[in-house]
Amino acid sequence: xxxxxxxxxxxxxxxxxxxxxxxxxxxxxxxxxxxxxxxxxxxxxxxxxxxxxxxxxxxxxxxxxxxxxxxxxxxxxxxxxxxxxxxxxxxxxxxxxxxxxxxxxxxxxxxxxxxxxxxxxxxxxxxxxxxxxxxxxxxxxxxxxxxxxxxxxxxxxxxxxxxxxxxxxxxxxxxxxxxxxxxxxxxxxxxxxxxxxxxxxxxxxxxxxxxxxxxxxxxxxxxxxxxxxxxxxxxxxxxxxxxxxxxxxxxxxxxxxxxxxxxxxxxxxxxxxxxxxxxxxxxxxxxxxxxxxxxxxxxxxxxxxxxxxxxxxxxxxxxxxxxxx
Length: 325
What we know:
About 50% of the residues lie in helices and about 10% in strands.
């Protein structure tokens, strides 16, 4: 028996597998401590942007409750204003600041509509007035959407129920504008406190494609047909609490599910390629892309129009486990 076979057999034993779980858990914790926004040693622009979005969304939630409490969220509005002030000189945080400004303006407007006065609200109003004209569509509340029609529901059900993983693609790159449409739609996915921590690397360069696919083990047999690859990443700096340790995978996973359905609606087939890899391999992905190490690779998605002779697995579904209380 070869040494490789012996090592593979050893790796499948229960004690070794348990040890490997601990190794991966420790390495992920170390990575999270180093790159998340939970433990900054000084001002961090990305973490500040996350705080702005988080606190702004908290205020929005308060304004959307059935019974809004007057002068609620003083600690939240104070923190939001501090982070907005700290980020004023950071051009990349301007969109988040605009959201915060709009939310604070909505907070002031609600209290004025109620005839409620308070020094805190007056201070917020004065501070908001010091910014450029706010966009009311960026923050606050709006009426809920109209009911979905039967035709709309039937169309959605058909798109979702007929999607399958495609492993045989027609040659050529997909129009980047079409991919961007799908990404923009998936960007509407829910995320923890509306922090939107995902990012996407669109890979269409043949050399980079081969390099990326060599770092993922699930594309053998159809890799030669892949001409478009999306690498879904989680921006770990967007997570600012120690208890959000695993949230990067949750949010990026929700985004990925929405993304493949958005691709399907544009006649772009896709196949989710898992990245349950070692941290060493994850670092290779990040290094090959040449991006900041705070972005952790969560999933690759091959995509493109299906080849004319393409067949797809039935992928039968078992009944979902459902608990009613």
